C-alpha cells in the first residue's frame, strides 16, 4: 500500500513538472518584414473611353497588388499641347479589384492625345515604385508601354498660353528707402483665363542671396502688388529684381529674368525699373535703444538663456520660451508657449495648460515647472501700456522734429500720420507740419482697434518747454468749519523749463481762505472755489464745501426728510446709524447718527447728527434724557461728549447744567418745545 502511494505521488509530480514547463515556454514568432514595392499590372491598364468630348469623364483603371497594404497610388497624365502634367489619385474599388481614377473633360481641357506620363504606388512601409511611359519618357529605367491609357480629346479650346508680363508697367513706390520704410512693387500681368500666382525674387546687394515675395492682385489699380519692408538689418545697396514668375490655373507659366543680373537666360528683360536703393540713415545712430525692453514681433523660439528686463510679444508673433529666465515682466499680445521659465509677472488674455490652436490675441500655453514672483493675470480686455521714451520733441516754426524710442507693438500715429518705428523701437520725425501746437498726442492703435494715447510737451527751437497742465490732488473737498485741508499740485510736463511756482486764490474768503502753500482754512459753512495758477497762466480749480461739524436735525422726523433736504441742495449723502449701518428712509433720526458727504461713490467727509434734547440717542425726548444729564453732572459714568454733549447743550451755557435739564422738562410737559 505504501509503495502504491509513492508510485501515485511520483506520477502526479511528473505531470506537474511537465505542466510547469509547458506554461513557462514563451513562443517566439518571426514576423516577415515587407521590403517589396507594390506590383503594377501594366497589362490590366484600361480606360473606359478612347475618344471624348466636352462633358465626358474618362475612367482609368489598373490592378496593383502588395504583400501588405497600399498607402496611395498616383497617376500623372501629360497634356497634349503644353506637355504640362495633370495628376490624379487612384482609389481602390472593392467590387472591381482595380485602382480607379477619373478625368473630367472641360471646355478648357487641351485637345489631342492624352498620355500617361507615369504611375506611382507606395505601400504602408514606404516601399514605392514608379513606372514611366516609354512613349513619353524613354530614358527612364523603370518604363513600360502605357498606351492602353491613352485617350483623345476633341472639340475643346484650351488655354495653352502663359500669362503676359507687361515689363513697361513695372514700378516701385520709392527708389530709395531706409530702415522703417516700406516699398511697394507693382506690375501688370494678364492671362486668357485666370492667374494662379505671381512670384518676384529680389537679389540682395551684398550677399547676392534671394528674397522672395508673392504679388497679389489689386482690383482697384489693376496691378499685381507686393511689399518689401526695409529693416535695420536689411542689406544696404541696390536691390535688383532677379526674376518674375507668373502661372495661370492651367499651369502655363512664364519666367522673365533680369538681363542686368542673369544675362544668359533666353527669357530676359531689363527690370531695372524695380531697383531699390537701401541706405543707412545715420540720423538713427544717435538714438539710444530702449534699455531692458525686448520685443518679439516675429515668431521665434528662445531657449536656455536669460532675458534682462521686460518682454513684449507682438500681436503677429508666436514665441516659445524654453528654460528661460526673464528678470522683468512678460506682456503677451500675440501667442506665447512657456516651458520651465521664471519671470516676475505674466500678463495676457487667455491661458491654457494644453494646446492652443491659434496662439493669437494674448493667448498663453503653460507647461512644465514655471515660477512667477509677481502677478499672473489673464483678462480678456488686457492691453499693456506702450513703453516710450522721447528724447527730443521740438516745434520749430510750425514743424515737428522728434527722436525717441517706443516698443514696436502697435501702429504709432501723430496728427493722423503713421510714424515709422524700427524693429529696435527707434523713431524719428523730421519736419511734420503741426502749426503752433504746444504739445502732440501720440496714438497707438492696438491689434484689436483700441487706442492708447500719450501727451508730449514740445519745446521751442531754443529748448524752452512750457507748462501745459496744472493738476490738483483734489477737485472737490468737503471740510468742517475750523478744519484745514492741504492741496498739492502736479505740474505737466515735469521737465518744464519754467518756474513751477503756483499762485493760490479763493473766490470766497468768508467761507474758505487758502495760503501760498495751498493750505485751506474752512471758516464758515458755504461754498468757494480755490484756483491754482502757474507762471504761464495754466490753472486748475477745486470746489470747496464747508460744513458744520454737527447737523441739528430736530425738524426732520425721519431719514427721508433729511435726504430730501440735501437732495434739493444737490448734495449726495448717506445717513448712518451709530453703528455705521446705512439707514432706511422710514427710520427715525437720532442723536449720534452720521451724515456722509459723497461724490461719485466716494466719501469726502462726515458730520455728526444732533437732535437737541435726545441725549441718550433714542430719537425721543423723555425723562431718560434728563437722567443722562443728571449723571453727567454728578460724574456718574462717562461725561457727555461729542454729539451727545451737543444734544444736551440747551440753555446756551458752555457747560451742561440743571438748566439744560429744565429745558427738557418743559419740552416733556409741553410748556416749551425744543426746536
Task: State the end-to-end CA separation.
Answer: 130 Å
The helix-and-strand class reads mainly beta
Strand content: 35-45%
The Cα radius of gyration reads 45 Å
How many beta-strand segments? 52
Percentage of residues in helical conformation:
under 10%
| Gross morphology | elongated
The profile of the biggest β sheet is:
10 strands, mixed
Summarize the structure in words:
The strands form 11 sheets. Strands 1, 2, 3, 4, 5, 6, 7, 8, 9 and 10 form a 10-stranded mixed β-sheet that branches. This protein is mainly beta and 675 residues long. Helix content is 9%, strand content 44%. The longest helix is centred in the first third of the chain and has 23 residues, at 2-24. Helix 3 (623-634) packs antiparallel against helix 5 (658-669). The chain is elongated, with a radius of gyration of 45 Å. It is built from 5 helices and 52 strands.
Secondary structure blueprint with pairings:
Layout: H1 2-24, E1 39-47, E2 51-52, E3 57-65, E4 70-78, E5 85-92, E6 99-104, E7 112-123, E8 128-133, E9 143-144, E10 151-153, E11 164-172, E12 176-177, E13 182-190, E14 195-203, E15 210-217, E16 224-229, E17 237-248, E18 253-258, E19 268-269, E20 276-278, E21 293-296, E22 300-307, E23 310-313, E24 318-326, E25 330-332, E26 335-339, E27 342-343, E28 346-348, E29 350-352, E30 363-367, E31 371-372, E32 376-378, E33 388-396, E34 399-406, E35 411-414, E36 417-419, E37 426-433, E38 439-445, E39 451-457, E40 469-472, E41 476-480, E42 484-486, E43 489-492, E44 503-506, E45 512-514, E46 519-522, E47 526-533, E48 539-547, E49 550-552, H2 559-568, E50 572-576, E51 594-599, E52 602-610, H3 623-634, H4 642-648, H5 658-669
Parallel strand pairs: 2-10, 8-9, 12-20, 18-19, 21-23, 22-24, 23-25, 24-26, 25-28, 26-30, 27-31, 28-32, 29-30, 41-48, 49-52
Antiparallel strand pairs: 1-3, 3-6, 4-5, 4-7, 5-6, 7-8, 7-10, 11-13, 13-16, 14-15, 14-17, 15-16, 17-18, 17-20, 33-34, 34-37, 35-36, 35-38, 38-39, 40-43, 42-46, 44-47, 45-46, 47-48, 50-51, 51-52
Helix pairs in contact: 3-5
